[in-house]
């Protein structure tokens, strides 16, 4: 069964903005406006939903957020949905989304990361529709470093498009830009060098499979539910196996170790040909680093494990398409990800 890719966006298409998890507080509304203007400058029309309130941890009651997201995903006039960012508790939407309506509708691109993994990964697993992990709307104004793609590049690409990304080998050491003070920030602060790291051993990595994954702290809560059945997805869409990626947002190494053990025991990694691990600023503990936590939990898989990939909460961002065919190469002199939208 083929993975379904939404048709490429063209100038004049409409992009929906809603907050399935956290909304945008008043002090960051100007940053949101800057991001929306950047989308409009590409020739797209932006449709902003009602679920955008940033005064609490969610933008609206769960039923309203689920209804607005479902409406955007099933509206043939909206070609992509790009939330401002993630949040904490998008999990409450899952039983309220009309999955049958989403599955039978013309596919719509969904772009996001962090708590959006809670929605996007199940969306790909349950409907076979590709989604884009690794960008969000509020980060859109940043100039994309050489070698990386933006979500604009991906959602406008034709079926069968193949693209290769190479990491800039520099990232942000810590902290975030103050968007309240500087809403027009457009340059990433990449102030420390760093390459990918193979955790399971030495030697070159050259591996292929279909991509699936997301944020550890979010996906671990879905293990054992119908929303995170990667084995069924592999049987239907990826007999060649999966390339699974995970990234830690902020929990310490002991927590991440527990989460990954639970995900492995629940079968999340059963079809993995390799595991990609996002670079993280999440803390180590005195007895366990984040790298050690990953290896402790996932070492028994006996597949390549490549860490410090730019697919997490540390800028810059290397977008990964859930469902895309992918080849990952990592050697002493080269690291690259090649994705094909077929």
List the helices and strands and how they pair.
Layout: E1 14-17, H1 29-41, E2 45-48, H2 62-74, E3 78-81, H3 99-104, E4 109-112, H4 117-127, E5 131-133, H5 151-155, E6 162-165, E7 170-171, E8 192-193, E9 197-198, E10 205-215, H6 216-219, H7 230-237, E11 242-247, H8 253-265, E12 272-278, H9 290-298, E13 305-309, E14 320-322, E15 325-330, E16 335-340
Parallel strand pairs: 1-2, 1-3, 3-4, 4-5, 10-11, 11-12, 12-13
Antiparallel strand pairs: 5-14, 6-16, 7-8, 9-13, 10-15, 15-16
Helix pairs in contact: 8-9
Summarize the structure in words:
The chain is of the alpha/beta class. It contains 9 helices and 16 strands. It has helices spanning 29-41, 62-74, 99-104, 117-127, 151-155, 216-219, 230-237, 253-265, 290-298, and strands spanning 14-17, 45-48, 78-81, 109-112, 131-133, 162-165, 170-171, 192-193, 197-198, 205-215, 242-247, 272-278, 305-309, 320-322, 325-330, 335-340. Helix 3 links the parallel strand 3 and strand 4. The longest helix has 13 residues, at 29-41. 47% of the residues are buried.
């Amino acid at each position: 069964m083929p993975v379904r890719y939404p048709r490429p966006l063209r100038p004049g298409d409409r992009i929906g903005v809603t907050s399935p998890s956290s909304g945008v507080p008043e002090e960051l509304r100007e940053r949101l406006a800057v991001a929306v203007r950047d989308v409009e400058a590409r020739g797209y029309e932006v449709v902003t939903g009602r679920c955008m309130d940033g005064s609490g941890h969610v933008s609206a009651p769960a039923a309203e957020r689920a209804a607005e997201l479902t409406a955007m995903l099933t509206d043939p006039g909206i070609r992509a949905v790009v939330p401002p960012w993630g949040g904490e508790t998008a999990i409450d939407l899952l039983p309220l989304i009309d999955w049958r309506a989403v599955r039978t509708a013309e596919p719509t691109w969904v772009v996001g990361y962090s708590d959006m993994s809670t929605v996007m990964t199940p969306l790909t697993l349950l409907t076979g529709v590709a989604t884009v992990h690794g960008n969000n709307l509020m980060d859109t104004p940043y100039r994309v470093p050489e070698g990386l793609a933006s979500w604009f590049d991906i959602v406008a690409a034709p079926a069968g498009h193949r693209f290769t990304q190479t990491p800039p080998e520099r990232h942000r050491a810590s902290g975030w830009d103050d968007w309240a003070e500087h809403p027009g920030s457009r340059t990433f602060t990449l102030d420390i060098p760093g390459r990918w790291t193979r955790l399971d051993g030495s030697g070159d990595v050259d591996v292929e499979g279909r991509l699936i994954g997301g944020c550890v702290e979010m996906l671990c809560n879905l293990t054992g539910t119908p929303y995170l059945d990667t084995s069924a997805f592999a049987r239907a869409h990826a007999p060649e196996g999966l390339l699974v990626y995970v990234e830690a947002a902020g929990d310490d190494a002991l927590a991440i170790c527990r989460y990954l053990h639970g995900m492995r025991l629940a079968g999340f990694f059963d079809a993995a040909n390799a595991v990609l691990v996002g670079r993280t600023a999440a803390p180590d503990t005195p007895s366990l680093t984040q790298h050690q936590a990953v290896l402790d939990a996932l070492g028994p898989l006996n597949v390549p494990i490549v860490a410090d990939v730019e697919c997490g909460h540390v800028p810059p961002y290397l977008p990964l398409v859930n469902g895309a065919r992918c080849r990952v190469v990592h050697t002493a002199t080269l690291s690259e990800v090649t994705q094909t939208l077929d």
